């Protein structure tokens, strides 16, 4: 079974960075992840909507983070901040997915 990006993000919010445990979680969701625009596999739109509702119930802030920008997942704890780039299944090599993620993080540092 395929896991879509929003479902992976939901898993991170539930298990790795649960807001109930004190994490402040922000997630950037682009239109394709949410099932808007383009072509989508059967069932993706429905599953994306369910994941979005669950993220909202958990108290996850959806949108672009004011300080760090459009990073997939930003989890802020009392003593640490974690940045996570979530990639879905793709025909490109894994290394090719890493370069845009590193670029986003460097740009967000405003060096």
Order of helices and strands: HEHEEEH
Low-pLDDT stretches? none
Measured as a percent range, the helix fraction is: 25-40%
Strand count: 4
Largest sheet: 4 strands, mixed
What integer value in Å does the Rg equal?
A: 14 Å
Question: Distance N terminus to C terminus?
Answer: 41 Å
Strand order of the largest sheet: 2-1-3-4
What is the count of distinct domains? 1
Mean pLDDT figure:
87
Q: What class, by secondary structure content? A: alpha+beta
Proportion in β-strands: 5-15%
Keywords for this structure?
111 residues; four-stranded mixed beta sheet; 3 helices; 38% helix
Report a brief summary of the structure.
This protein has three helices and four strands; from the N terminus they run αβαβββα. The chain has a four-stranded mixed β-sheet, with no helix packed on it. 38% of the residues lie in helices and 13% in strands.
Structure, described:
- This protein is α+β, with helices and mostly antiparallel strands and 111 residues long.
- It has one domain.
- Helices cover 38% and strands 13% of the residues.
- It is built from three helices and four strands, in the order αβαβββα.
- α2 (44-58) links the parallel β1 (24-27) and β2.
- α1 (5-16) packs parallel to α2 (44-58).
- The longest helix has 15 residues, at 44-58.
- The mean pLDDT is 87.
């Amino acid at each position: 079974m395929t896991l879509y990006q929003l479902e992976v993000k939901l898993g991170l919010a539930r298990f790795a960075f649960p807001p109930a445990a004190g994490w402040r979680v922000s997630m950037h969701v682009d239109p394709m992840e949410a099932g808007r625009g383009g072509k989508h596999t059967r069932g993706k739109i429905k599953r994306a909507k369910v994941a979005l509702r669950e993220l909202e119930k958990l108290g996850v802030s959806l949108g672009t983070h004011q300080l760090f920008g459009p990073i997939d997942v930003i989890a802020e704890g009392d003593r640490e901040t974690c940045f996570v780039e979530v990639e879905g299944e793709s025909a490109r090599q894994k290394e090719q997915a890493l370069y845009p993620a590193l670029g986003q993080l460097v740009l967000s540092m405003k060096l």
